[in-house]
Design goal:
- The protein has about 240 residues and is α/β, with parallel strands linked by helices.
- The chain has a single domain, classed as 3-Layer(aba) Sandwich (Rossmann fold), CATH 3.40.50.
- The protein contains 11 helices and 7 strands.
- Helix 2 runs antiparallel to helix 5, helix 4 packs parallel to helix 5 and helix 10 crosses helix 11.
- It is globular.
- The termini are close together.
Length: about 240
């Protein structure tokens, strides 16, 4: 079962991660910022292999930022598949100020430009807002890094999770949003209702040695305790949550 659910990199994979990573570096994004916030190559390779094996018709991404993982998901999946992305679309400053890269434009501006660059924008739907509930941790992080609170308040960000039902059920879901226990649990509690029978939820940042690993793991544990019929396989920083059959 583990080999079926968790295939790993082989020499035949196209390196979609390197394509998108190089694109963002060429756009002036610091590598340190990309390495801190976005998925790494080994994680992208595992996700790519899973997509090529599973051939999902509909994919959901919770937490997009500027779109490195989005590009990998879109490039690796079939041209006829649909990728739905949910993100608050905050100014990039929410993370980039600490890396001496001030950028007041919203994340989705960079996502759209990247998707158009690779010619994959037609298959991607961008939904601006929180997924399952209002998150104050984003706001606190933004303020702590010197961000202008007016930029958040003026955006009037709402919860948009129910809108994903239009494109459900989802064969693959990538969860990389708010990493606090409460919001990981809240996101999973909502998204599992829209999962196909053999769908898989990929969770990012589960390595306990990482910055968010313990909180993400705690949120997953709470979900498993309250929702019967699910199991998880964890390998380093990624976890696969799936329905037991």
């Amino acid at each position: 079962m583990c080999r079926l659910l968790y295939p790993f990199k082989n020499g035949r994979l196209m390196d979609y991660w390197q394509m998108v990573y190089t694109y963002f570096v060429d756009q002036g994004f610091p590598e340190a910022l990309l390495d801190f916030v976005c998925i790494h190559q080994d994680e992208a390779d595992q996700i790519t292999t899973l997509i090529e094996s599973k051939q999902p018709d509909s994919i959901l991404e919770i937490g997009t930022f500027i779109g490195l993982s989005t590009g990998v998901l879109a490039l690796a999946s079939a041209p006829t598949s649909t990728l739905v992305c949910v993100d608050p679309n905050f100014p990039v400053d929410i993370f980039s100020n600490n890396f001496k890269h001030p950028e007041s434009r919203g994340c989705f501006e960079f996502v759209r430009t990247m998707l158009e660059h690779f010619g994959i924008h037609q298959k991607v739907v961008l939904l601006e807002g929180y997924f399952s509930c209002i998150s104050v941790s984003y706001q606190e992080r933004f303020i702590a890094q010197g961000g202008n609170t007016d930029l958040i308040e003026s955006n009037n960000i709402t919860v948009v999770g129910e809108r994903i039902g239009e494109y459900a059920p989802y064969d693959l879901v990538f969860v990389d949003g708010d990493h606090s226990l409460e919001f990981v649990y809240s996101d999973l509690s909502l998204v599992h209702r829209y999962l196909s029978e053999d769908g898989i939820i990929i969770l990012h940042d589960l390595d306990p040695r990482g910055h968010w690993g313990k909180d993400v793991a705690a949120g997953v544990t709470q979900f498993l305790q309250n929702y019967a019929g699910f199991s998880i396989i964890i390998h380093e920083n990624l976890g696969l949550l799936y329905k037991e059959t």
